[in-house]
Specification:
The chain has helices spanning about 20-25, 30-40, 100-120, 135-145, 165-170, 185-190, 200-209; strands at about 1-5, 10-15, 120-125, 150-155, 175-180, 195. It is α/β, with parallel strands linked by helices.
Length: about 210
């Protein structure tokens, strides 16, 4: 499939051939959902913790005698029904991470990119270099390319060529900079437009083609 390539002023400069196996692949919604849930689960720290009965201080003596008081029998002040007692079935530190084979993860990425391509959500740029690190310059370029849409910008690498771009994009609220080899399903689904320089397109082709 063919796609238009623009400059930073939003003017069409050329066209490029996009590989169908990446940008026109069969969309597998279930696979994308699995990849998304895996990514969200892997982001969970799992550091929540509560004290159970064996970890609460106190409870050495029986609160009152078993019979004759008229009150319910109690064996310890660290039981769950007491204020300050141990908790039952409450969270402890755990690992939420999920495994997913590399082939399935990459197939999910191809599906997500194909969806974006079909919705005209991909914006190809000939070059993304900026003369100086200024957020206003970068914001103006994004507006020319993607309008007011929430935008994901793929950077090929962290080389000196893209230093100004990386510095300029740090404080923009409606856009996000991401290295092309860190492309993921969650970001593709969360942002309306994806700006892809031709150098980033080569990176994507290298591991998804």
């Amino acid at each position: 499939m063919k796609a238009d390539v623009f400059n930073l002023q939003g003017e069409k400069s050329s066209t490029v051939e996009l590989p169908d196996e990446i940008f026109a692949a069969k969309v597998n919604v279930d696979l994308m959902n699995q990849a998304y849930l895996r990514q969200m689960a892997n982001a969970r720290l799992g550091t929540h913790s509560t004290k159970r009965r064996g970890e609460v201080r106190g409870g050495g003596a029986k609160p009152w005698r078993q019979k004759g008081t008229g009150r319910a029998r109690q064996g310890s002040t660290i039981s769950a029904q007491w204020v300050g007692g141990g908790r039952i079935h409450t969270p402890k530190p755990r690992d939420y991470s999920q495994l997913m084979p590399k082939k399935m993860r990459r197939a999910a990425l191809r599906s997500a990119l194909s969806v974006k391509a079909s919705e005209n959500g991909l914006v190809l740029v000939s070059d993304l270099a900026l003369a100086e690190p200024k957020a206003s310059l970068f914001s103006k370029a994004i507006e020319a390319l993607a309008g007011n849409a929430r935008t994901l910008v793929l950077v090929p690498d962290k080389s000196e060529t893209y230093t100004n771009v990386i510095k300029s994009g740090r404080n923009l609220t409606e856009s996000k900079l991401l290295l092309a080899n860190y492309l993921n399903v969650r970001d593709l689904l969360q942002y309306e437009k994806v700006i892809i320089p031709l150098a980033s397109l080569d990176v994507i082709k290298s591991y998804l083609g």
